Amino acid sequence: MPPSIDSLELPPFRPRFPWWGADLQTIAILLNTKTASLAPHTSERVCFPMADRTGDILLGMLDQPAEPVGGKPLVVLLHGLTGDEDSPYVLKAARHLLDRGYTTLRLNVRGAGPSRPYCREIYHVGRTADFRRVLTQLPDELTRDGIVAVGYSLGGAMLLKYLGEEGSFSPLRAAASICAPIDLVGTCKHMMTRRNWLYHRYMLRAIKAEATGPGAQLSDAERDIVRGARTVWEYDDRFISPRYGFMGAQDYYELCAPRHFMPEIRVPTLVLAAHDDPWIPIDHYREFAWSDNQWLLPLMPARGGHVGFHGDATHQSWSDVALEKFLERIVMLEA
Description:
This protein is an alpha/beta fold. It has helices at 5-8, 22-31, 88-98, 128-137, 140-143, 154-166, 184-191, 197-211, 220-228, 232-243, 249-256, 283-286, 318-334; strands spanning 42-49, 57-64, 74-78, 104-107, 147-152, 174-178, 269-272, 296-299.
């Protein structure tokens, strides 16, 4: 079972100047420049061939701490929609964990970031078999102290779905999702509202570039559909859904929504979401029956934006501090 919220001894989250308000918290991540190095820690490229006859290969970056600490699990970090191994929130989390002796694997999901040129196909929320395949390829020397997975936004949704599918058979020691969309229909409709038109435009442009990037194997008709999509819903309805066996966006979103799989999770899982997240309606979290599954630890501060959590107590992300304390308690409880 996961530790209690009180046992984490987390300081309350208070936004740091100038990142006041949900939108500034969110935009801070989008505007953040990428860190080129995690020195003095070391990094090396790792590859994970997929076993589905596509020839696709997922790439990741394995980061080793300069001062390893025994007994700490490998932490696999999964980025969000249109993100990759160098997304600022992924790099910040890796740096935070490496400084505390954890080994991290920053995984690029299928067709994302450095994986793009080596993949004919592209990821979607339902593609949990890819993550399953990656776990089976991790060498024993990396996993002798267990594996923890952390997913951000869409990566968190994929992770929650995977955990529910696996139930008690998951090899993970623990997991965490940060600002994951657990109701895909509601989240997509919310992103298409006038309030979020700028975010929606930004994401739509990015997913089009990603879907048609080097390595992607699309027919001329599919390329026309992707380029002509006017909304994320239309992109998923006319491109992702028919390509991957769904009857449309509604069918895809309903079948893959994490909220349907979360009741079956049997791994200690931290589920972090902010009440003021402009992308993910907090009502989706409020409506979930948390008391029915004691393996889930919901943490829902009033503020933080979408994968923001730039707090005044420290220049480290408050979500990284929460993750650190959660993992410390997991290691302590299982020692």
